[in-house]
Every structure is written in structure tokens, then in C-alpha cells.
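stage 2 :: seqdesign
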């Protein structure tokens, strides 16, 4: 076991962004112990921290890891080790991961810092024969963008619980909060005034959508059921574990104001992202429904007529380059295998639907495999699920054996009781039992 330090002499590195936020790296946290028969490297490069690990019997191939969203207010830049680290080293793969040079939802910076990490790897180790791109959550968005923007760098990609619909997760949070307001208070607005929303509006919404006091989110009146059904439809449609997903995401998850308010707390955002002065969310053309019948009922029509509408800022979606929140075109240059929990309501499966739709429109469906899992927690996968998917991706890249997947574009298939069971391997919190 060998451990080398590749780092500057300062204990911490600070970088002030053009928006005025100061990010820092505590270099005392960068060192990590290499696994047996491997060498660990760490340091700071282009204002980002990095970890690299190379086995002694390196097979010449590199697996890059893109971490997920760190938050809007978090100033410390930290590095994640690859979640498949032990497997990769044992199988002869090197891996590398970056902290990025800033937090926030800044895909452009993350892509640029990941490219810088690849150059750093070339300088420290050697140029790899093949590079696999992997990433989680926002890292899935980064993965999908970087392989399209730099198609000749990578051999295969595996976005995990990824925001591969680029804007779909943002729009879903908008949908949830506007619908909750409209059904729970009779009116809706965006953006909200945070203090009033947290202290008055959200409690009022819950009280008005309950069938009896303190019954949220399981004991709902008709308007409450309409909200639940609308959320199901906007997050990806009817699916077998949505009841568990609704319960979990409206009960346990905590981000700002306490357990049960996770989806409401996400609605405190004004929809403005780094590099983008305007809103990145819209619902101007959305047709909201309370059931799977495409024909609008009088109740659905009244809701659609009344709910607040917002249009995307015209500069937000740029199909070229890395401006604003980069758009994913679906023009795949390499094999891509995705993994997604069907009960995830942080990055819902509408991302997979949007991604598969774009890929099909580009005529590149032969290069995409999407896999569904029965979990409800964001990015909750077992080690065996991740490893088996990665091995299938490698076999596809090296031998041309396209692996099996799940069809997210067939609504009846998504609604089937066994959807998500084909690749689920292990226990998932609140996951429905597979036949």
C-alpha cells in the first residue's frame, strides 16, 4: 500500500467566485489511505480538490466520479471517493473524483473541473486507454452533459439517479408547490416569500388537504388526493410504489424546516441558477391532471385555468455549449446505462422519461439502457446493483453485448406491479416487495 501527497503547501485553499461567494478546501481532509496494493493521490488542481487511486495491477482504464449537489449555502469543497472504489481497485481499474471549484447547481463548472481532473490524471499517472464516466444525482446531469460535449473522451457512461432530464427536476418542484398552494389555499404564486411560506402557507396547505387534523400526508380529503395524484403524474406517472414514495418524501425527509417539509422547502428557491439571471423553471404549457385519463375533467380544467403560470427565461435553455444549466440533447456518442429508483421524488423518474424521449428523437436509442429499481430514497442502491450494472456496461463497451433494461416510455409497463423488480437486488427502505 503506497500513499503519496500531491498538494500545495497551504492548509486551505480559497476561491472567490464571480458571484462573490467564497469556497474553500480544507487540505487536512484531503488525504486518504490507499487500499492494499494501490496508490492514493490527492491535492488541489484548478481550484478544486481531487482524489485519485490507482491499483498496482492497473488495467489502463479509468472510472471518473461526479458527485451530486452540495447545496446553495455550503462553502466547503469536499471530495467523494467512488462508491465502487473497493470493487474497481480489486478489478484493476483506477478512479478519480473532483470536489469541483464551487458548489451550488453549477454543471458548467463541474464539467470544466472534471476535464481538468482528467488532465491531472494524465500528468500524475498516464493517459488511460479507456475512460468510463459515472455520476450521481447532479453528477448524472454532469455525466450526460460531458459525454455529449466531449464525445471522443469517453468509452461508456453510467448516470446514477441522475438529473438526466436537465430541467425536469426543477420543474417538478415547481409543479408540486404550485399545485399544493392552489389546491390548499385557492391561489398560487411563484416565487414565494420564504418566511410566510414556511410559517403560514405550508401549515395551511396541509390542514386544508387533510381529511382530519394531523392526518397529513396519509389521511387526505378529495383535494389532497388530487394533489397526490397530480404529483404522481408529474413525477413520472402511475407506478407500483408511489404510495410509499408519497409517504416517505412527505414524512421523513428533512432539508430546512424539519421532517416532512422536504418538497415544500425545495420550493423556497426562486428558480435562478448560477450563470443564469432568469428563471430556469416553467409550467406555461403544462397540462395538469388528477388521473391517468388524458381527457380533462371539469375539475382539472378549472385547476389548469387558475394555477399560476411562469415561462422559462429566454436565455436559460441554450442547446449549444455549457452556458447556464446545460441542455442535454440525447445525441449519445457512446453506450449509456442509467439507474433510477422509481419512488425517488428528489430526482423523479420523469428524468428518465425525458432522457429516453430525447435519445429516441435523436435516433440513438440503441446506445441507451435504462434500469428501474424499487427504492424510494434518492440514490439508494446496493453495492451489487451498482457493480452488476457497471460490469454490464463494460461488457457492452468491450464486447458489444447490449444489456437488458426497463422501458420508461411505456406507461403501462411503468404501472405494472413488477416494474423495478428486474434489477433490484437487496433491501431498499420502504421499497415494495417484488414478486
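stage 2 :: out
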Amino acid at each position: 500500500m503506497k500513499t503519496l501527497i500531491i498538494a500545495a503547501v497551504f492548509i486551505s485553499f480559497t476561491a472567490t467566485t464571480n458571484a462573490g461567494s467564497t469556497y474553500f478546501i480544507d487540505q487536512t481532509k484531503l488525504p486518504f489511505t490507499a487500499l492494499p496494493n494501490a496508490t492514493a493521490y490527492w491535492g488541489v488542481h484548478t481550484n478544486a480538490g481531487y482524489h485519485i487511486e490507482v491499483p498496482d495491477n492497473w488495467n489502463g482504464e479509468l472510472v471518473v466520479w461526479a458527485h451530486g449537489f452540495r447545496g446553495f449555502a455550503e462553502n466547503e469543497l469536499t471530495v467523494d471517493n467512488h462508491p465502487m472504489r473497493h470493487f474497481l481497485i480489486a478489478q484493476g481499474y483506477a478512479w478519480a473524483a473532483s470536489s469541483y471549484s464551487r458548489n451550488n447547481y453549477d454543471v458548467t463548472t463541474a464539467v470544466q473541473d472534471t476535464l481538468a481532473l482528467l488532465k491531472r490524471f494524465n500528468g500524475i499517472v498516464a493517459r488511460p486507454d479507456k475512460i468510463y464516466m459515472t455520476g450521481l444525482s447532479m453528477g448524472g446531469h454532469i455525466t450526460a452533459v460531458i459525454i455529449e460535449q466531449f464525445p471522443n473522451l469517453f468509452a461508456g457512461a453510467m448516470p446514477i439517479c441522475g438529473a438526466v432530464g436537465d430541467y425536469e427536476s426543477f420543474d417538478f418542484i415547481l409543479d408540486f408547490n404550485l399545485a399544493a398552494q392552489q389546491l390548499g389555499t385557492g391561489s398560487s404564486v411563484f416565487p414565494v416569500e420564504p418566511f410566510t411560506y414556511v410559517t403560514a402557507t405550508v401549515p395551511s396547505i396541509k390542514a386544508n388537504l387533510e381529511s382530519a387534523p394531523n392526518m397529513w400526508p396519509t389521511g387526505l380529503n378529495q383535494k389532497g388526493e388530487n394533489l397526490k395524484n397530480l404529483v404522481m403524474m408529474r413525477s413520472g406517472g402511475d407506478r407500483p410504489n408511489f404510495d410509499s414514495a408519497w409517504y416517505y418524501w412527505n414524512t421523513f425527509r428533512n432539508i430546512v424546516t424539519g421532517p416532512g417539509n422536504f418538497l415544500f422547502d425545495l420550493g423556497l428557491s426562486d428558480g435562478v441558477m448560477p450563470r443564469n439571471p432568469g428563471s430556469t423553471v416553467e409550467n406555461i404549457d403544462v397540462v395538469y391532471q388528477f388521473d391517468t385519463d388524458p381527457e380533462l375533467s371539469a375539475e382539472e380544467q378549472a385547476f389548469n385555468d387558475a394555477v399560476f403560470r411562469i415561462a422559462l427565461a429566454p436565455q436559460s435553455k441554450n442547446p449549444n455549449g455549457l452556458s447556464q444549466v446545460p441542455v442535454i440533447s440525447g445525441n449519445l456518442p457512446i453506450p449509456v446505462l442509467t439507474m433510477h429508483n422509481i419512488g425517488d421524488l428528489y430526482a423523479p423518474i420523469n428524468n428518465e422519461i425525458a432522457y429516453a424521449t430525447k435519445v429516441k428523437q435523436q435516433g440513438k436509442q440503441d446506445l441507451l439502457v435504462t434500469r428501474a429499481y424499487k427504492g424510494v430514497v434518492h440514490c439508494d442502491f446496493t453495492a451489487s446493483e451498482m457493480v452488476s450494472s457497471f460490469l454490464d456496461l463494460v461488457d457492452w463497451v468491450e464486447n458489444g453485448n447490449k444489456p437488458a433494461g426497463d422501458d420508461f416510455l411505456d406507461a403501462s409497463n411503468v404501472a405494472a406491479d413488477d416494474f423495478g423488480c428486474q434489477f433490484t437486488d437487496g433491501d431498499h427502505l420502504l421499497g415494495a416487495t417484488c414478486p
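stage 3 :: structure notes
- Residues 181 and 188 are 5 Å apart (CA to CA).
- The chain has twelve helices and eleven strands.
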